Amino acid sequence: MTQQVRGVLLDIDGTLVNSNDAHAHSWVDAMEELGYHADFEKVRPLIGMGGDKVLPDVLGIQKDSEQGKKIEQRRKDIFKQKYLPTVKPFPKAKELLQRMHDDGLTLVVATSSTPDELKSMLDIIGPHVQDLMAQETTAKDAPKSKPNPQVIDVAIQRSGHSASELLMLGDTPYDIESAAKASVKTVALRSGGWGDKDLSQAIAIYDNTADLLEHYDESPFKQGIPVGA
Q1: For the chain, what are the domain ranges?
Q2: Which of 67, 194, 45 is nearest to 55 (CA)?
Q3: What distance in Å separates the CA atoms of residue 172 and residue 195, rounded to the nearest whole number?
Q4: Topology of domain 2-18+88-226, per CATH?
Q5: Please, what CATH class does the domain formed by 20-86 belong to?
Q6: Residue 98, Cβ neighbours under 10 Å: how many?
Q7: pLDDT value at position 46?
Q8: Number of other CB atoms surrounding residue 24 within 10 Å
Q9: Nearest partner of 27 among 15, 42, 43, judged by Cα
Q10: Distance CA 93, CA 110 (A)
Q11: Which residue among 9, 59, 160, 188 sits deepest, i.e. has the most Cβ atoms within 10 Å of its Cβ?
Q12: DSSP state of 88
């Protein structure tokens, strides 16, 4: 027995665009610029969470502190100026979104990124991609980042559907955990750098957007969500 899928909650970084390394480098650069030592290897696994989690975990300082605010602003500037021009979409990302949209699924962005960063990412995926989105939920709407479910809760409300009618598409354990806390199942992609063991709580795992699109007709998006999964 399956539940028909009526909407998709979309993570962006690492899921639709190949930006996780760029975000990690931006954090490291900003921290070092302001006098802190930070290892890329320590920061990289935290990408998918927001500054409210990254800064305490790496440096032991709060995002809303004076230094936290300075680092966060520099991270944004460095990412935009230095790394954003290098970011590319994953293969067939736009085509996957178009397929979902054409199938009548409500597409809702559920990201811990800022609104400005989201717009840039959607532009990278392709022209008019923003037109495919019914709603967007960002750090502006949900200050507590994943794995806190706040961004998912807001996205569910904006979707117009119940949690049981939605699927999360993400690339990190944080996506899976935040969605699960809001009673939403996740389809995961390996493109963000995580392995199957880390993504084991997803109901299905694919290599990337192209792999999912190739197997779309057999995927939970088309076949439905197994009840009790």
Answers
A1: 2-18+88-226, 20-86
A2: 67
A3: 9
A4: Rossmann fold (3.40.50)
A5: mainly alpha
A6: 16
A7: 97
A8: 22
A9: 43
A10: 16
A11: 9
A12: -
Nearest 5°: the CA angle 73, 144, 124 is: 55
pLDDT of residue 229: 57
Token pair recorded at residue 185: 């199942």
Sign of CA dihedral 33, 37, 39, 44: negative
Give 229's DSSP letter.
-
Q: Indicate the SS3 state at residue 178.
A: helix
Q: 106 in helix, strand or coil?
A: strand
Query: At 196, which amino acid appears?
Result: D
Which residues of the chain fall short of a pLDDT of 70? 228-229
DSSP the chain: -EEPP-EEEE--BTTTBS-HHHHHHHHHHHHHHTT----HHHHGGGBTB-HHHHHHHHHS--TTSHHHHHHHHHHHHHIIIIIGGG--BPTTHHHHHHHHHHTTPEEEEE-SS-HHHHHHHHHHH-TTGGGG-SEEE-TTT-SS-TTSTHHHHHHHHHHTS-GGGEEEEESSHHHHHHHHHTT-EEEEEGGGS--TTTTTTSSEEESSHHHHHHTGGGSHHHH-EETT-
Q: Residue 78, SS3?
A: helix
Which one-letter DSSP state was computed for residue 227? T
Q: Tokens in use for 188?
A: 């995961």
